[in-house]
């Protein structure tokens, strides 16, 4: 079987490394490649995948929303999230899924359930995470503006950063950064003051490189539990593999392969 990840750009994707480690652990003679799809060629995607005999693929920036109009069948969760990150091609029919929310939920499963959760940012990753977590938790989204959030087909509490009451931060059990703040090349501004959080709070970031973003550093200085985005990345990929094959992914092996690569890259 052949799989892929598409995006623009895509050359730095660690998905092939992660999936090949999984294939090797399961002794599967499968392939997975990163395919750069130029926006002007996106409308030829079906032909490209057919020519390459692709059985399933992951979707990253900037095509997750556009893919809704390409697949034949959209899973309910992907419809609610408004984006697709996983496509399964079965007997010529394209099925679209989104494993981002479930991938993140699995990464913090030990901490959630009837919790007060603050999510920073309102982009695609935020929407996926909020959709999953809002089913069993109270979710508050903080963003610079609220226009995007009002169009979501599910309900969350929402405030702008400069109009959020201190009590909301003080009562939060979990804070999740879904913005690029802290990523290389982006601002390192503090979106909230983590010193206001209670001692039992958990602070998460969906970024996994760098391993410790500014918000995670600040949280650790306060003695708080922190979780970076590596497990979310592994889980969303593992869930994609399980959709494509029906087999159980080797998450520990996948994580070890990515972590070792990131450690080598840090040393270079």
UniProtKB/TrEMBL annotation:
Ranges of residues in domain Quinate/shikimate 5-dehydrogenase/glutamyl-tRNA reductase: 112-206
Annotated shikimate binding sites: 13-15, 60, 85, 100, 208, 236
Pathway: Metabolic intermediate biosynthesis; chorismate biosynthesis; chorismate from D-erythrose 4-phosphate and phosphoenolpyruvate: step 4/7
A GO MF label: shikimate 3-dehydrogenase (NADP+) activity
Gene3D superfamilies, A to Z: Leucine Dehydrogenase, chain A, domain 1 (3.40.50.10860), NAD(P)-binding Rossmann-like Domain (3.40.50.720)
Residue ranges of every copy of the Shikimate dehydrogenase substrate binding N-terminal domain listed in the record: 5-87
Record's catalysed reaction(s): shikimate + NADP(+) = 3-dehydroshikimate + NADPH + H(+)
GO biological process: amino acid biosynthetic process; aromatic amino acid family biosynthetic process; chorismate biosynthetic process; shikimate metabolic process
EC number: 1.1.1.25
Domain spans labelled SDH C-terminal: 229-259
Pfam families per the UniProt record, alphabetical: SDH_C (PF18317), Shikimate_DH (PF01488), Shikimate_dh_N (PF08501)
Amino acids binding NADP(+): 121-125, 206, 229
Known function: Involved in the biosynthesis of the chorismate, which leads to the biosynthesis of aromatic amino acids. Catalyzes the reversible NADPH linked reduction of 3-dehydroshikimate (DHSA) to yield shikimate (SA).
PANTHER family in UniProt: BIFUNCTIONAL 3-DEHYDROQUINATE DEHYDRATASE_SHIKIMATE DEHYDROGENASE, CHLOROPLASTIC, SHIKIMATE DEHYDROGENASE
Family per record: Belongs to the shikimate dehydrogenase family.
Subunit field text: Homodimer.
Protein name per the record: Shikimate dehydrogenase (NADP(+))
Organism: Macrococcoides canis
